[in-house]
Amino acid sequence: MNVTITPSSVAGTARAPPSKSYTHRAILAAGYADEATVRDALWSADTKATAGAVDLFGGDVDRADDGTLEIGGFDGRPNVPADVIDCENSGTTMRLVTAAAALADGTTVLTGDESLRSRPQGPLLEAIADLGGEANSTRGNGQAPLVVTGPLSGGEVSIPGDVSSQYITALLMAGAVTDEGIEIDLETELKSAPYVDITLEVLEAFGVEARQTDDGFAVEGGQSYRPAGGDYAVPGDFSSISYPLAAGAIAAGDDGEGVRIEGANPSAQGDTAIVEIVERMGADVEWDREAGVIDVSSAPLSGVEVDVEDTPDLLPTIATLGAVADGDTRITNAEHVRYKETDRVSAMADELGKMGVETTETQDSLTIHGDESTLEGATVDGCDDHRIIMSLALAGLAADGETTVEGADHVDVSFPGFFGLLEDLGVALERSD
């Protein structure tokens, strides 16, 4: 599907979708349990992949009409799957499920789409091997397809922290049900640390104790996953909130009516930083944390410097904000953003460039030169990446002329209702095959 955006003003109320990061962890945590209910879960292409893995491990994920997930788990010991686990486009699924597979008494094969089969898994495979399991890349390059054989009993392992925090999450979640537990020593500084905070928060909600140590993280073995009261509610997603928030900052009308975002309750998500970033750039932002409501109105924006070491998913949104701001917007500590669904640093530089935006790209930074840019409508490639698609659609709100985003159906990965939300806020858009 392609979507053509006509420059538009936005106003009205938007509801934050549930957090993808929390939903992944909650579905798998419920799988590790005997049974659990997950409420307010995001049901998207990525989270369906995690649910499918739980099913193949011997669990059962049943989605009710109201979206609630009733999950019968495999009670800490996954079965050997009867089929290959297809993680689709979901890196989170592959990494979390790879560690779960190492608990099964037999061999599991995992694969994914072309993009996922190009993403690095090597450090996690090495960690599983160091803990007594077997884990190999079929092509010997540290990338999927993967073959994992267990069971492992736990122990101490070292792993780099600057490739993906998901490795740490995967090992902590699996380690709780091993005999010995797992102690993780970080070889390098941890990137995207708030995502491990999310993991610790979800583990605590499911009755599992894990902790940060002087050198990394640790989780005791022999624990059971049991959420209080038998259920868990997923909070709103600040990665997704960044899009209606940026839309209000870019294109709220001149009549004073802005965009209200509901479901913006505080949590461990690092991407809550987007509220402060948009405010620093000059938009009028008010966040009632107790009510979970953000109000945003547009104003002239100015470039800022933003470090995305802990918030890699915000880079595409910030790049679009920089394209409409005065001066330079410099995004730093961004090398790990190159290893997502696509190289998001180059993708945003290339696609915004088609719209007349001047950028400077280094290995670990992206600078958007707002004063040297003329934002013009163009046909751009969504790069099969949900966050690139949504960010380019926002750029189309302020461009001179229509903007067509190709491959826009990939928003289903994290925000299936994104284009409907834009329409509800007053955006004129057309879908086409």
From TrEMBL:
<dbReference type="GO" id="GO:0009073">
    <property type="term" value="P:aromatic amino acid family biosynthetic process"/>
</dbReference>
<feature type="binding site">
    <location>
        <position position="164"/>
    </location>
    <ligand>
        <name>3-phosphoshikimate</name>
    </ligand>
</feature>
<comment type="pathway">
    <text>Metabolic intermediate biosynthesis; chorismate biosynthesis; chorismate from D-erythrose 4-phosphate and phosphoenolpyruvate: step 6/7.</text>
</comment>
<dbReference type="InterPro" id="IPR006264">
    <property type="entry name" value="EPSP_synthase"/>
</dbReference>
<dbReference type="GO" id="GO:0005737">
    <property type="term" value="C:cytoplasm"/>
</dbReference>
<comment type="function">
    <text>Catalyzes the transfer of the enolpyruvyl moiety of phosphoenolpyruvate (PEP) to the 5-hydroxyl of shikimate-3-phosphate (S3P) to produce enolpyruvyl shikimate-3-phosphate and inorganic phosphate.</text>
</comment>
<dbReference type="InterPro" id="IPR036968">
    <property type="entry name" value="Enolpyruvate_Tfrase_sf"/>
</dbReference>
<feature type="binding site">
    <location>
        <position position="20"/>
    </location>
    <ligand>
        <name>phosphoenolpyruvate</name>
    </ligand>
</feature>
<feature type="active site" description="Proton acceptor">
    <location>
        <position position="313"/>
    </location>
</feature>
<feature type="binding site">
    <location>
        <position position="387"/>
    </location>
    <ligand>
        <name>phosphoenolpyruvate</name>
    </ligand>
</feature>
<dbReference type="InterPro" id="IPR013792">
    <property type="entry name" value="RNA3'P_cycl/enolpyr_Trfase_a/b"/>
</dbReference>
<keyword id="KW-0808">Transferase</keyword>
<dbReference type="InterPro" id="IPR001986">
    <property type="entry name" value="Enolpyruvate_Tfrase_dom"/>
</dbReference>
<keyword id="KW-0963">Cytoplasm</keyword>
<dbReference type="GO" id="GO:0008652">
    <property type="term" value="P:amino acid biosynthetic process"/>
</dbReference>
<dbReference type="GO" id="GO:0009423">
    <property type="term" value="P:chorismate biosynthetic process"/>
</dbReference>
<feature type="binding site">
    <location>
        <position position="165"/>
    </location>
    <ligand>
        <name>3-phosphoshikimate</name>
    </ligand>
</feature>
<keyword id="KW-0028">Amino-acid biosynthesis</keyword>
<feature type="binding site">
    <location>
        <position position="166"/>
    </location>
    <ligand>
        <name>phosphoenolpyruvate</name>
    </ligand>
</feature>
<feature type="binding site">
    <location>
        <position position="91"/>
    </location>
    <ligand>
        <name>phosphoenolpyruvate</name>
    </ligand>
</feature>
<dbReference type="Pfam" id="PF00275">
    <property type="entry name" value="EPSP_synthase"/>
</dbReference>
<comment type="subunit">
    <text>Monomer.</text>
</comment>
<feature type="binding site">
    <location>
        <position position="340"/>
    </location>
    <ligand>
        <name>3-phosphoshikimate</name>
    </ligand>
</feature>
<feature type="binding site">
    <location>
        <position position="166"/>
    </location>
    <ligand>
        <name>3-phosphoshikimate</name>
    </ligand>
</feature>
<feature type="binding site">
    <location>
        <position position="344"/>
    </location>
    <ligand>
        <name>phosphoenolpyruvate</name>
    </ligand>
</feature>
<feature type="binding site">
    <location>
        <position position="25"/>
    </location>
    <ligand>
        <name>3-phosphoshikimate</name>
    </ligand>
</feature>
<keyword id="KW-0057">Aromatic amino acid biosynthesis</keyword>
<protein>
    <recommendedName>
        <fullName>3-phosphoshikimate 1-carboxyvinyltransferase</fullName>
        <ecNumber>2.5.1.19</ecNumber>
    </recommendedName>
</protein>
<feature type="binding site">
    <location>
        <position position="20"/>
    </location>
    <ligand>
        <name>3-phosphoshikimate</name>
    </ligand>
</feature>
<dbReference type="InterPro" id="IPR023193">
    <property type="entry name" value="EPSP_synthase_CS"/>
</dbReference>
<feature type="binding site">
    <location>
        <position position="119"/>
    </location>
    <ligand>
        <name>phosphoenolpyruvate</name>
    </ligand>
</feature>
<feature type="binding site">
    <location>
        <position position="192"/>
    </location>
    <ligand>
        <name>3-phosphoshikimate</name>
    </ligand>
</feature>
<dbReference type="GO" id="GO:0003866">
    <property type="term" value="F:3-phosphoshikimate 1-carboxyvinyltransferase activity"/>
</dbReference>
<feature type="domain" description="Enolpyruvate transferase">
    <location>
        <begin position="7"/>
        <end position="420"/>
    </location>
</feature>
<comment type="similarity">
    <text>Belongs to the EPSP synthase family.</text>
</comment>
<feature type="binding site">
    <location>
        <position position="313"/>
    </location>
    <ligand>
        <name>3-phosphoshikimate</name>
    </ligand>
</feature>
<feature type="binding site">
    <location>
        <position position="21"/>
    </location>
    <ligand>
        <name>3-phosphoshikimate</name>
    </ligand>
</feature>
